[in-house]
Amino acid sequence: MTTKPDGTKVAYRISEIAELISVSDAYVYKAIDEGEIPRVGSRRPKSPILIPAWALEAFKASGDWWHPDFRPAQFPIHENAPAAVTARA
């Protein structure tokens, strides 16, 4: 599920993010692998990688996918996240 019953987006698929910020899917995958873009993990095999909606809002507002004003306190920091992100955690 990527939307709430009221239609509010809670997460985006890779292709949606790529289209919204006008980059390739490959760029988004690489940015996720490097920890630049947060992702919502899933324990199910072959499930889609999802980017939380708060991350897109943070990027639109500040250019920082991990901006602390948008990131929920309980959201885990990726092990490969840039040093500036882990310092703010």
Largest sheet: 2 strands, antiparallel
Mean pLDDT: 82
What's the helical proportion of residues?
25-40%
Order of helices and strands: EHHEHH
**Could you tell me how far the N terminus lies from the C terminus, measured between alpha carbons in angstroms?**
28 Å
Unreliable parts: none
- Number of helical runs? 4
Give the C-alpha Rg: 13 Å
Shape: globular
Query: Taking strands numbered 1, 2, ... along the chain, how are they ordered across the largest sheet?
Result: 1-2
Verbal overview:
The chain has 89 residues and is mainly alpha-helical. The chain has one domain (11-88). It has helices at 14-21, 25-33, 53-62, 83-88, and strands spanning 11-13, 50-52. A two-stranded antiparallel ribbon has the order 1-2. The chain starts with 10 loop residues before the first strand and ends with a helix.
